[in-house]
Design goal:
4-stranded antiparallel β-sheet; 2 domains; 229 residues; elongated; single chain; 24% strand
Length: 229
């Protein structure tokens, strides 16, 4: 799958529409059109196949620190899972779902759990319970849904390569609209066709051919009180 840079995408638009010497549409407007297209494609992806943007990152623990920022590129604070791995000690860090009144009873020897919080000063973060008992840059891995990459420079790469045709067609449509071109209506129709093709592609996407439904015992685990000492 070809990775298109912003310069390459812009050059194609200018060549296709004969806009090499365009002054009516400013560089800032071109950039805005592309990011609009990416935002629209991203919204469809998140609605139909959000695992397209599934990624992971390490959380740098600091001894005694309990509150940490969400990844900077996280979408709508969608944490899929979190894991702790330190030698032979391996477990999923579960989300805190017990009464807040139980927090004072968390023991420093308990497995980590996390609680999403939202402060007026720092925005969305998560709190580890208990606070970190070690300093480590790799023991905790968070899996989450990220945002699509915003284009800012000529060398930036569009990270939705499967739907580049929609993005290019959307920008063409916006250019025609700006200029009041006679082809505007057709461009709108072509953009809608590319959008429907994108939706069809996303609808047909599956992770793999494994159709086994695994039993989920997390409900019972959440109410297991053996952790209290």
């Amino acid at each position: 799958m070809r990775a298109w840079t912003y310069t390459e995408m812009l050059t194609k638009i200018q060549n296709d529409l004969d806009l090499q010497d365009e002054i009516f549409i400013s560089p800032e407007e071109f950039l805005g059109y592309f990011n609009e297209a990416i935002d629209n494609a991203e919204a469809q992806i998140h609605a139909l196949y959000e695992d397209y943007f599934l990624t992971s990152a390490s959380i740098a623990l600091v001894t005694g620190t309990s509150t940490y920022s969400m990844p900077s590129d996280i979408y709508a604070n969608k944490v899929r899972s979190m894991y702790y791995v330190n030698g032979q000690t391996k477990y999923e860090i579960k989300r805190w779902r017990r009464p807040l009144s139980d927090i004072p009873y968390v023991d420093t020897s308990d497995d980590y759990m996390y609680l999403p919080i939202n402060s007026s000063a720092s925005g969305y973060q998560f709190k580890f319970l208990p606070a970190a008992q070690e300093t480590s840059s790799s023991n905790v891995t968070i899996w989450y849904i990220r945002n699509a990459k915003v284009i800012t420079t000529g060398t930036d790469v569009c990270d939705i390569p499967e739907f580049i045709n929609y993005i290019l067609q959307y920008v063409k449509m916006r250019c025609y609209e700006k200029e009041g071109h006679v082809n505007t209506i057709k461009a709108i129709e072509d953009t809608e066709k590319e959008k429907m093709l994108m939706i069809q592609t996303l609808t047909n996407m599956t992770d793999d051919e494994d159709t086994e439904i695994r039993k989920d015992f997390s409900f019972y685990n959440d109410f297991d009180t053996d952790w209290i000492t």
